[in-house]
Amino acid sequence: CSTRSDSLPMINDANPLRQRLNRFRHIATLADARARAVTTPNNDTLYSSAWLDLSVEPLFLTVPPVGDLYYSYAFMDLFTNNFAYVSHRLHGGEPPTHMIVGPSWQGDPSSEVKLVRAPTNSVWLLGRILVDGPDEVDRVRILQARVLLETPDMRNERRILETRELMRQRTVV
Predict the structure, then answer these.
(1) Residue 1: which pLDDT band, with cuts at 50, 70 and 90?
(2) In the predicted model, what is the mean pLDDT of residues 145-169?
(3) 94: DSSP letter
(4) How many angstroms separate the CA atoms of 104 and 28, rounded?
(5) What CA–CA distance (Å, rounded) separates 164 from 157?
(6) What residues contact residue 121 under an 8 Å CB cut-off, 6+ apart?
C-alpha cells in the first residue's frame, strides 16, 4: 500500500489480492494444506467471496440451478455474525433470487425475490460449492462463474437482454 502526502493509505490497483466491492472473487482451485483464505477450508469445496456495500442500493444474488450439488452462501455482518444463508438445505437445487438490503432500506421487494435484510451496510458473503470428485471440478467452476451478484440496474439490463424486450417494438423510419 503506498501513501499519499497527507499520510492516508492509497489503494494499490495492481495488487492481485485486491477485491472490489459488490463483486465476487472466485477461488477456482481446491484447497490444500497451504490455503489460508478461509480458516480451515475444505479440500472438496470451491469458494467465492464478496464484500458488499449496501449503503447505496440493494444487491441481488442469483444462484443458478445446481441439481444435487451442495452449495451454501453465508451472509456475515460487519461483526462476523451469520445472519442469513442461501443453501441447498433451505432451497434445494433451484434457489430463488435473493434481494440483499441494508438496515435503512425501505420499500417492498418484488414477489419474485426473497428479501434478506442485513443488520449492517457492510456484509461479507462467503460462497461454497461442493466438488463431488475430481471429475466434477470443471462443472463446479462453471456453476461458480454463473452465480450473479447484481445491482438493480445490472439486473434490469440483463433481464432486458435475455428477453429481447427492446426488440419487440417496431422501428419507424
Answers:
(1) very low
(2) 81
(3) S
(4) 35
(5) 10
(6) 53, 54, 55, 78, 102, 103, 104
